[in-house]
Amino acid sequence: MYLFLKILSSAVIIGVVTELARRFPLYGGIVAALPLISILSIIWLTIQGEATHTINKFTLGVLAGFPATAIMLFVIYISLKHSLHLALALSLGIAVWGVFLIGQKFIIGVFIS
């Protein structure tokens, strides 16, 4: 039952955000940047009885992924601004995201260990 509710709530959010973005691109982007998925995930983890420790680790993982996501979105923005095809812009963004995460993990490993 929870799985169905998760899928339904996610689909509704995606539908609302894309409709808003279609009519008002700037506002759609602002709403899309809200951490809705993170908040919903935290709520669902809590409802399903996960320990606070698990939710804390999840939240830290979201924070760790944020810089790479910001860089990915910037690369996609610049690529589209320079008229690259959407598929190429997305591919470049995802590639940069992966490289950034690997670099971030390496740098954090150097300073933490």
From TrEMBL:
Keywords: Membrane, Transmembrane, Transmembrane helix
Transmembrane segments: 26-46, 58-80, 86-112
Keyword Membrane in record: yes
Stated name of the protein: DUF3147 family protein
Organism: Rummeliibacillus stabekisii
